Amino acid sequence: MMKKLFCAMIAVIFIFALHISLSYAGEAPPDIRNAASKGISIFVKDPGMKGLYRLGFESQSDIDYAALGDGFQIFTVPTDKLLNESDFQDIQSVATPTNQWEFLVVAGNKTNALLTVDLVEGKWTPVGIGSSGLAKKLSKLLEAWPASSGYQYRLIIAYQISAKFIEVSQGDIVIGLIPLLGSNAKMGEPKKEFDPTDIHDAKEVLINLRSAVLRNIQSGQ
After folding, report:
1. Model confidence pLDDT, tens digit, residues 3-15
2. DSSP three-state, residue 172
3. pLDDT at site 82
4. Which of 7, 36, 37, 72 could bridge 155 with an S-S bond, Cβ 3.0-4.6 Å?
5. Using 50, 70 and 90 to split pLDDT, how confident is the model at 26?
6. Contacts of 147 (CB under 8 A, 6+ apart)
């Protein structure tokens, strides 16, 4: 009996660890990726879709060959943890997974957009497509930090100030965070062009985020 219980516990731990690894690495489980694939048919290849040229689909060939690229689970930073100084360590220790995933949509050698998948009434569902600018920046980041070299990623969004970051790690070591879409300025830093090698220390990011959120609270935003 004890042996069976021990084996069951090991199996649960293994499955839980596998889920964390998949989430952290940005590789979506099959059911989530299948939902994203359906999203390609709904949002890109449906003849009724208009305005795809705004997302960089310049020809019918781009539409025909549209495919899924890498997936990123969205992590967020809960306000209570962000403002609780007793939990003040670094951003990866307080980042919390959500049910949303963003997938790169590629056509040939171009990255065109992000396709969003969410858990709706217990079912993984494609819910939208867009964010062409963010998609292109994520693509550049993957080139600078290739998964083939063992790099892993998490997309972290601080919704309180609409700041976005990619956390880059290798093995068990977090290398740092890269600000996306003007997130430097939202933390009070000088605004600058996106640089996929602009690594920020995880503790520094958490401190700057906390300061920015407190400023917004004090100003009534």
Report:
1. 444 444 444 333 3
2. coil
3. 80
4. 72
5. low
6. 25, 70
Query: Which pLDDT tens digit goes with each residue over 102-130?
Result: 999 999 889 999 999 999 999 999 999 99
* DSSP 3-state of 105: strand
H or E element in which residue 174 lies: strand 173-180
With H, G, I as helix, E, B as strand and everything else as coil, classify residue 171: coil
Q: How do residues 42-61 score in pLDDT, each as one tens digit?
A: 999 998 888 898 898 988 99
Token readout for 132 is 């062409």
Domain count, the chain: 1
H/E stretch holding 175: strand 173-180
* Three-state SS at 191: coil
Position 134: which residue type? L
Q: In whole angstroms, what is the distance from residue 149 CA to residue 158 CA?
A: 28
The letter for the amino acid at 190 is P
**DSSP letters along 33-65, please?**
HHHHHHHHHHHTS-TT---GGGGT--SHHHHHT
Q: Which three-class secondary structure state does DSSP give residue 123?
A: strand
pLDDT of residue 5: 42
Burial of residue 91 (number of CB atoms within 10 Å: 0-12, 13-18, 19+): buried
Structural domain boundaries, residue 112: 2-218
Torsion sign across C-alpha atoms 15, 17, 23, 25: negative
Residue 140 has which token pair?
């550049």
